[in-house]
Specification:
Layout (H helix, E strand, L loop, with lengths): L1 H14 L5 H6 L3 H8 L5 H15 L5 H5 L4 H10 L5 H15 L11 H11 L8 E7 L6 H13 L3 E7 L4 E7 L4 H12 L1
Antiparallel strand pairs: 1-3, 2-3
Helix pairs in contact: 1-4, 3-4, 4-7, 6-7
Length: 195
């Protein structure tokens, strides 16, 4: 239970920073993970998850993606129905649901705050998926946690790797890298993972 709470709390804290919101939603693991946490039994985990989603929904470009994320709206509706059990969670779920269902044109488009946020987020090199490419690698030896640990260590040593996720059952690793990486660095990733 404590692990789930710490993960969700970290995501919520990251989402509280406007320059991180677009990158979090576009990351392949963060948003689906938050949707899974909407079914958690612990009320603290639920509340922190809803807070993170509310922060993420403040970015107008995230709304369509979040609204169409598998299980998002259904889970929010379920939490709204369960509002009698925990009123805070019901109210926050309804708030997130309403933001995601509001017309995009009405959400902070004309405010002076919006252009400033956009300019600020472009300053951070990893804040936008436009500057990243995903590469999916098949790794034959990826069949236990020890080998996964070796792959993680190798990937952490490669400059330009933004993030990575493993699909152990398929023996695959999806690596997000900066799009301006030289071919040698891409080859270095392949070399590390074939060892």
């Amino acid at each position: 239970m404590m692990d789930a709470l710490s993960v969700v709390t970290q995501l919520r804290d990251l989402a509280s920073e406007p320059q991180n919101r677009e990158a979090i939603v576009q990351d392949q693991g963060c948003l689906p993970g938050l949707v899974l946490f909407l079914d958690h039994q612990d009320s603290q985990v639920l509340f922190s998850t809803l807070q993170a989603l509310r922060y993420l929904a403040e970015c107008p470009s995230n709304i369509a993606i979040m609204k169409h994320e598998l299980g998002m709206m259904v889970s929010l509706e379920h939490l709204m129905e369960q509002g009698e059990i925990n009123e805070e969670i019901g109210v926050l779920a309804k708030d997130v649901y309403n933001v995601l269902n509001s017309p995009v044109n009405n959400v902070a488009v004309g405010t002076p705050e919006a252009p400033r946020r956009k300019a600020k987020s472009q300053f951070f090199i990893n804040s936008s998926n436009k500057k990243a490419k995903s590469v999916t690698l098949e790794i034959q030896g990826l069949d236990n946690t020890d080998n996964r640990g070796l792959c993680e260590e190798a990937l952490l040593k490669v400059k330009g790797v933004i993030s990575f996720t493993f699909q152990m059952a398929l023996k695959r690793c999806t690596v997000r890298i900066r799009s301006d990486l030289a071919t040698e660095v891409r080859n270095e990733i392949n070399h590390f993972l074939t060892l």
